[in-house]
Amino acid sequence: MRKTMLAGIIAGVCVTATTVVAGATQAMANPNDCPKNYVCVWGDSNYEGRFVFAPGTSREKVGDRMNDLTTALWNRTGSTICFYDDTGYGGSLLARVGPGESRPNVGRTANDRISSWRAC
Ligand SMILES: [Ca+2]
């Protein structure tokens, strides 16, 4: 009798935990999180983790918080945006993303390297 009750409690806890995680994931992936005319970058794939949402089409320095940490990105501007390895649009061109396009994962070559971007 006791064993049965305990199993029931554990099952209940598991169901609750799963529901919470699924809800959080859905909220993080909401395209409305990145405002129109912004370039948005996230630290984890599928638009999760730390992020920076920057208005306009250029950012000379992504800043310490996101430098060399971008994995996912969303270009909600009307321009094609080029993402660079160094600040000041220097170093390798890591990604070229068309207007409105997004990348749930920038790929191994560009991952955790982006330091700046501008229209190109
Ligand atoms: Ca870099």
Describe the structure.
The termini are far apart. The protein has one helix spanning 2-28, and strands at residues 38-44, 48-55, 72-75, 81-86, 90-97, 102-103, 116-119. It has 2 domains: 1-32; 34-119, Crystallins (Gamma-B Crystallin, domain 1, Sandwich), CATH 2.60.20.10. The strands form 2 sheets. A 4-stranded antiparallel beta sheet has the order 2-1-3-6, with no helix packed on it. A 3-stranded antiparallel beta sheet has the order 5-4-7, with no helix packed on it. Mean pLDDT is 84; it is low at 13-27. The relative contact order is 0.17. With 120 residues, the protein is of the alpha+beta class. The longest helix is centred in the first third of the chain and has 27 residues, at 2-28. Strand 1 and strand 2 (48-55) form a beta hairpin. Helix content is 22%, strand content 32%. Bound molecules: calcium ion. Calcium ion binds next to strand 4.
